[in-house]
């Protein structure tokens, strides 16, 4: 329905447009269609490569596969599990009863500074503070309460991926009294606001990690950054959800390809049809 409405709008506006302009717009639309098709094919290839990556949960099957592999390691695999701390978790600085294994807190001040040349106030970031905290954690098989199998996650701060959840964001604006106002005007600087943000990897989050899986002494499995150059990825979803996000992107590029291609072909066809009508009318007068 949306595509039908879009094409109707194109046809409705074509009568007041020259054929040359319509051909130009139609050609540009076809060019965009080709670009979107290239993105679609690239995403399809990426999805096929993701499907080739072996997928496991922290269970006996993974342990058997690692033991049977050369040097007791899987060069690159996806491991899906529930995040659990190896000890006491971190407590959120702003949210009560919210616990995490990775925590990133940012506090940044914004000040207004007087510019004597322009006679105006401008804003400047100052006193930025950032802290990254982490406790050792592992992945457990979701829903497996009796299983003792787990995969320790090594160096999560080196991983790529939006695995941190923003649980707090606040802007506190400065409120000056009369004395502060006079002093700030004399000094030429005054506080404007303080921006607070906290991001965490919450305990119990379903996490999918892509990396190297190795076996240490005592049947301890570890997920760590790959040594073969492949990316170390952490995503706060199960494997199917991660794959579905890529498939949704591929579908989006496919839709854009169809819309731009049909729109471009319609414009070019209409322009040629109008020129044919003009030719027929001239031929009739002669």
TrEMBL record:
Keyword hit for Transmembrane helix: yes
Main location: membrane
Transmembrane segments: 252-273
Cellular component terms (Gene Ontology): membrane
Domain E3 Ubiquitin ligase MUL1-like: 112-266
Catalyzed reactions per annotation: S-ubiquitinyl-[E2 ubiquitin-conjugating enzyme]-L-cysteine + [acceptor protein]-L-lysine = [E2 ubiquitin-conjugating enzyme]-L-cysteine + N(6)-ubiquitinyl-[acceptor protein]-L-lysine
EC number: 2.3.2.27
Annotated compartments: Membrane
Keywords from the UniProt entry: Membrane, Metal-binding, Transferase, Transmembrane, Transmembrane helix, Ubl conjugation pathway, Zinc, Zinc-finger
Lipid bilayer topology: Multi-pass membrane protein
A biological process from GO: protein ubiquitination
PANTHER family in alphabetical order: MITOCHONDRIAL UBIQUITIN LIGASE ACTIVATOR OF NFKB 1 (PTHR12183), RING-TYPE E3 UBIQUITIN TRANSFERASE (PTHR12183:SF36)
Protein name per its UniProtKB record: RING-type E3 ubiquitin transferase
């Amino acid at each position: 329905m949306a595509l039908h409405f879009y094409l109707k709008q194109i046809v409705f506006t074509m009568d007041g447009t020259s054929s040359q302009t319509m051909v130009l717009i139609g050609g540009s639309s076809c060019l965009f269609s080709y670009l979107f098709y290239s993105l679609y094919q690239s995403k399809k290839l990426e999805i096929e490569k993701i499907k080739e990556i072996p997928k496991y949960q922290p269970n006996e099957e993974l342990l058997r596969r690692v033991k049977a592999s050369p040097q007791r390691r899987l060069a690159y695999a996806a491991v899906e599990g529930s995040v659990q701390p190896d000890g006491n978790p971190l407590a959120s600085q702003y949210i009560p009863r919210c616990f995490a294994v990775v925590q990133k807190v940012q506090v940044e001040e914004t000040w207004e500074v007087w510019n004597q040349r322009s006679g105006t106030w401008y804003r400047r970031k100052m006193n930025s503070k950032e802290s990254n905290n982490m406790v050792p954690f592992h992945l457990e098989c979701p829903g497996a309460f009796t299983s003792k199998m787990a995969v320790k996650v090594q160096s999560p701060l080196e991983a790529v991926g939006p695995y941190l959840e923003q649980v707090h964001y606040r802007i506190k604006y400065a409120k000056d009294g009369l004395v502060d106002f006079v002093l700030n005007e004399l000094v030429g600087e005054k506080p404007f606001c303080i921006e607070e943000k906290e991001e965490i990897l919450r305990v119990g989050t379903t996490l999918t990690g892509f990396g190297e899986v190795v076996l240490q002494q005592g049947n301890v499995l570890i997920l760590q950054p790959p040594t073969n150059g492949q990316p170390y990825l952490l995503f706060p979803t199960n494997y199917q959800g991660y794959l579905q996000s890529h498939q949704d992107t591929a579908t989006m590029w496919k839709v854009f390809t169809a819309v731009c291609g049909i729109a471009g072909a319609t414009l070019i066809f209409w322009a040629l049809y109008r020129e044919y009508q003009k030719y027929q009318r001239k031929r009739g007068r002669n």
